Amino acid sequence: MLRSIARSMVFLSLLALLLLPAAASASDLEIANAWASLPEAWENSSVYFVIQSKSSKTRTLVGASGSCCDFIEMLRAVLKDGAMDSEKQDKIDIPAGGAVAFVPRGLYLNLAGLESLGVGEPVTIELEFADGEKLEFDAIGRDD
């Protein structure tokens, strides 16, 4: 009986060690303060949030998607010739142990074709990383 319990504990310990790297990579990124501007007749909705890395290596965000809209672009607001413009971002590095803020007049996700979103309603976004990992979160509609 004691030998059977010891074998079970060894098995469970080995299983935990095998699962540990997967759990660490899935939990080394956190999203905070996610919100989405309400779509206007002349303007797409934008998503803002902070992404925090607890990883010891740089993570590279390469895209975003969601069934809520036609497509999602990663953009950076820039001042060009005295007017605000947007530049498409093909990748965004999240530094090891650091954070990147997606904020108005900075980095943001552009939700092209989102037809409706009300105050307090969630919109689900999936971030895609260069290593193949995906991270899903909800941004809450807010009247900015």
Structure description:
With about 140 residues, the chain is an alpha+beta fold. It has a single domain, classed as PCu(A)C copper chaperone (Immunoglobulin-like, Sandwich). The chain is about 20% helix and about 50% strand. It is built from one helix and ten strands; from the N terminus they run αββββββββββ. Strands 1, 2, 3, 4, 5, 6, 7, 8, 9 and 10 form a ten-stranded mixed beta sheet that branches. The radius of gyration is 20 Å and the shape is globular. The relative contact order is 0.23.
Q: Which architecture per CATH? A: Sandwich
Largest sheet: 10 strands, mixed
CATH class annotation: Mainly Beta
Rounded Rg: 20 Å
CATH superfamily: PCu(A)C copper chaperone
**Gross morphology:** globular
Proportion of residues in β-strands = over 45%
Give the number of helices: 1
What is the number of E strands?
10
Give the class from helix and strand content and strand pairing.
alpha+beta
